[in-house]
């Protein structure tokens, strides 16, 4: 297949680009490297040093003989995006990763929240219009998030729910209760994509992905120049990855509040597998389908306890759990049961969290511990400013 990966310089996008290239798909990456600029702006750094995208694709070519094309454009610029999609030989699939994806970033202040909304909402709308205008048969595979649903007191279905009300029934979009301005952009994207499929007969798969963890894939492991980013800071670092780095550094694990917050999780090796499944088994023309992309459910405290136990027993590392005042506004004890049957029924073979995965992440952090800035670990962004805290 001819596949366009937008956001292919990022954590999920880079691992996906290599994997799909290895599978002999013809890959083009679009990225404007804004994420590298956001890192600089906030003085953040990936735990593992990352090469430029040019160096990465050259190394991939040297090692495998495979070419990955790269295009530097900002997808909020509509005419630049149209030039790419208005080609003779159309893309079979467009995978859209290119968003501001940090909940804390979107909650810093007015400016960060507006930048998140413009980048995510305009980018998504531009993709829909460019597909409508130039490439309506291209299958859109969009990275959404499990956080669109929030934590309702009922099971979370895959995008839609059958409702019976006053003697009538309908299949309606599942109610959304996102927990940050970032997560809100994903809800808006989903509505726009659903609308575009209905109205313009486009085809799309919305992958509501859980929190991603892990580092290694077979392709990333081939060379240090192919290294992926690995965020540990309080803005972009996600919880499981952060805990493994914290334990390696002897830093107490930063559990926000009671730690009963329960979320869906997925190993990055399964992220790329799920995306492959979505590409190879595309939505029909006019179809908008939603897959919940995760393999396991854990509470934050459960994860912290699991990681401490592995660190203690397998690596002889002393580990401490610290309950910090929760900087976010979220339920700390709640019901949570989400469904993920769609991808399993299409053949996903889950890679479950093992002691070995935790050990390898801790060892990765030990290898690069000299790069960690400890000041970037404690949370600094409050959902409510201190004067408004109850
Ligand atoms: P990332 O920040 O590592 O990568 C995003 C990439 O998109 C970056 O390289 C960035 O430069 C690029 N980008 C952003 N805006 C752009 C624009 N306007 N034009 C061109 N390029 C642009 O993020 P990630 O962790 O790889 O996440 C990728 C997607 O997966 C996001 O949509 C995110 O919401 C979703 N997701 C991620 C996770 C996770 O835990 N990492 C979980 C669920 C869903
Ligand atoms: N948390 C802690 N301690 C930490 C970091 C986080 O207790 O040091 C808690 C948070 O309060 C939250 C949970 O862990 O309850 C998850 O937080 P996170 O930062 O790992 O993930 P989140 O903000 O939800 O965002 C991440 C990605 C985002 C993606 C989302 C998937 O950054 O792009 O959309 O995971 S989901 O959570 O399913 O919405």
Automatic annotation (TrEMBL):
Residues 3-292 form the NAD-dependent epimerase/dehydratase domain. Signal peptide: none annotated. Coiled coil: none annotated. It comes from the Eukaryota. SUPFAM superfamilies: NAD(P)-binding Rossmann-fold domains. It holds the Pfam family Epimerase. InterPro entries: Epimerase_deHydtase (IPR001509), NAD(P)-bd_dom_sf (IPR036291). Belongs to the NAD(P)-dependent epimerase/dehydratase family. PANTHER family: DTDP-D-GLUCOSE 4,6-DEHYDRATASE-RELATED (PTHR43000). This is NAD-dependent epimerase/dehydratase domain-containing protein. It comes from Adineta ricciae (Rotifer).
